[in-house]
Amino acid sequence: MASYKDYKKIPKKDGEKSKILSNNRKLFMDINKKYLALDLELNNAEDNSISKPKIIQVGIAIGNFNDYQNDNLLSQKWYLNPEEPIFEFITNLTGITDDDIVSNAVPHAQVAFEIGTLIKSQECFVNPVVWGGGDSTELKSEFKDRSISFPFFGRRWIDVKTWFLLNALANGKNPNIGLSSALTACRLKFKGIPHRADDDALNTLRLFFELLNRQYKMHQLLTSAKQII
Description:
single chain, alpha+beta, Nucleotidyltransferase, domain 5, three-stranded antiparallel β-sheet, two-stranded parallel sheet, 9 helices, 5 strands
């Protein structure tokens, strides 16, 4: 990746060069900033008829652009007890069974505390990265229903699905694809097992950094073109 010192090679007059360098400082993305990707697995019927399906698994991934390049992103998952049987459709889709819930489910308060601790210790960006909107709202809603404090995520999220969709439309490609296919379109392979919250979160974060890097390179190219003109 190019560094700021590369711009010192631009043959401009001192005053003009100084102005260009000052403006270009803002074009370098912060490769050390950490982001948190969030994914949920919900207990819902095959016809999606449950108005407010309960969360059965929470997955996160955390890291910065350097972690992505070095294949060193952190991921973690928690099981939550929906206090109802897992739909057969969901077990077939996610692999999550009633026995998994009985053996591995933890209190909502523990999930809130541990995610909050990671967000603070890693100094993550305020909004979570997601594939499709709503996961952070649903998680915060279940915390709120149990009077659990969770002052994180803000009111917005970074939706990689919408970002990918816009890029696909702009390039005349099919926008109606899932996370795994979106990764393939970007020449990335899905790591892990689809529809497992931690694996989906990890791959969402990988796709986010890949798209971010492509956008960054585009800005670099446009900036260089403007300097030549």
